[in-house]
């Protein structure tokens, strides 16, 4: 359909109501009202119409390209989601089914230890399912912009131990001062974010070297650093670890949905903070979380600085 591109003078209601129309493209008209154009004026208006039509067509192509890229991204996410669901849901479901089936066998007598082991396997598989479902729901909330923060003054030295509580204590070493300023945050969401970062670090770090968590103040921010000595990430893929469903190497670990760090970054950014990664000197990955101190109390005397947080005492070289 042909549409009016622009109007001069008293704008015509439709191209048909214009006193002069000049083609500006295959489906565009420059519609004007007023005295008829003659001679040089008509040539100038025609040249302007052509130029304006070119600009409009270029903008249309750009918008079309943006929409195409967006559709490709959505298709990629949907494909990754199907892959995650088919693998990550199927694996723990199989564990639950196998454990329950074994417990229901009537012709096999299981001792208390065997029953306890099977129940532990079922529980672990159910926990993995719960984690995956939680991550999927969190990603949906982030994508829909439906994340509501319940902020309150919170101490960082309370958040970090809560985030680490579900992981083996011997695998994590915490160095978070008690005298850091309070943060005005949603404690539950930040515990989830830190928990996802810690779980990822522990998963890839060698069992002989604990993950080190330090914290300090840098100007108007609190900075938390999670340092592991795992295999690390190639420099050109460091930021990609925060992309939903991203897995650097599926052969390294079958655990995790590829959503944990993406969810963590979303939660942190909802607090106007940042979550970034960098290589650990000597090998490994360091995830750096920065949160603003807007409205928080000033740091207590002797509070750790970010430089102290960068180099925890006794950390591996």
Tags for this entry?
317 residues; alpha+beta; Helix Hairpins; Heat Shock Protein 90; 3 domains; 5-stranded mixed β-sheet; 3-stranded mixed β-sheet; 6 helices; disordered N terminus; disordered C terminus
Question: Main sheet?
Answer: 5 strands, mixed
Beta strand %: 15-25%
Topology as a string of helices (H) and strands (E): EEEHHEHEEHEEHEEH
> Which geometry do the CA atoms define?
elongated
Please, could you describe this protein's structure?
With 317 residues, this protein is an alpha+beta fold. It folds into 3 domains: 3-67, no CATH class; 80-144, Orthogonal Bundle (Helix Hairpins), CATH 1.10.287; 152-310, Histidine kinase-like ATPase, C-terminal domain (Heat Shock Protein 90). The protein is built from 6 helices and 10 strands, in the order E-E-E-H-H-E-H-E-E-H-E-E-H-E-E-H. It has a 5-stranded mixed sheet with strand order 5-7-8-10-9. It has a 3-stranded mixed sheet with strand order 1-3-2. The protein has a two-stranded antiparallel sheet with strand order 4-6. Helix 1 packs antiparallel against helix 2, helix 3 crosses helix 4 and helix 4 (187-204) runs antiparallel to helix 5 (260-270). It starts with a strand and ends in a 7-residue tail after the last helix. Residues 1-11, 250-254, 296-309 and 311-317 have low confidence and may be disordered. It catalyses: ATP + protein L-histidine = ADP + protein N-phospho-L-histidine. Its EC number is 2.7.13.3. InterPro entries: HATPase_C_sf (IPR036890), HATPase_dom (IPR003594), His_kinase_dom (IPR005467), HisK_dim/P_dom (IPR003661), HisK_dim/P_sf (IPR036097), Histidine_kinase_KdpD (IPR052023), Sig_transdc_His_kin-like_C (IPR004358).
């Amino acid at each position: 359909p042909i549409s009016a591109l622009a109007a001069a003078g008293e704008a015509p209601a439709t191209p048909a109501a214009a006193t002069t129309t000049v083609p500006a493209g295959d489906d565009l008209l420059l519609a004007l009202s007023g005295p008829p154009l003659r001679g040089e004026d008509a040539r100038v208006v025609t040249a302007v119409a052509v130029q304006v039509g070119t600009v409009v067509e270029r903008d249309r192509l750009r918008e079309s390209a943006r929409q195409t890229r967006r559709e490709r991204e959505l298709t990629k996410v949907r494909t990754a989601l199907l892959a995650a669901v088919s693998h990550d849901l199927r694996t723990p479901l199989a564990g639950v089914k196998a454990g329950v089936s074994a417990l229901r066998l009537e012709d096999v007598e299981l001792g208390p230890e065997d029953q306890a082991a099977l129940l532990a396997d079922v529980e672990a598989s159910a926990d993995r399912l719960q984690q995956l479902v939680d991550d999927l729901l969190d990603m949906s909330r982030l994508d829909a912009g439906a994340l509501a923060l319940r902020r309150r003054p919170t101490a960082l030295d309370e958040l970090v131990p809560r985030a680490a509580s579900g992981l083996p204590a011997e695998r994590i070493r915490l160095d978070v001062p008690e005298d850091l300023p309070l943060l005005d945050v949603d404690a539950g969401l930040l515990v989830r974010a830190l928990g996802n970062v810690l779980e990822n670090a522990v998963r890839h770090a060698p069992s002989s070297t604990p993950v080190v968590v330090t914290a300090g103040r840098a100007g108007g921010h609190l900075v938390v650093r999670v340092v592991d000595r795992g295999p690390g990430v190639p420099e050109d893929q460091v930021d990609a670890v925060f992309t939903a469903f991203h897995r650097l190497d599926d052969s390294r670990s079958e655990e995790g949905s590829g959503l944990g760090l993406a969810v963590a970054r979303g939660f942190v950014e909802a607090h106007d903070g940042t979550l970034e990664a960098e290589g650990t000197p000597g090998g490994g990955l360091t995830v750096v979380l920065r949160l603003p101190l807007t409205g928080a109390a000033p740091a207590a005397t002797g509070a750790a600085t970010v430089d102290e947080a960068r180099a925890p005492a006794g950390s591996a070289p």
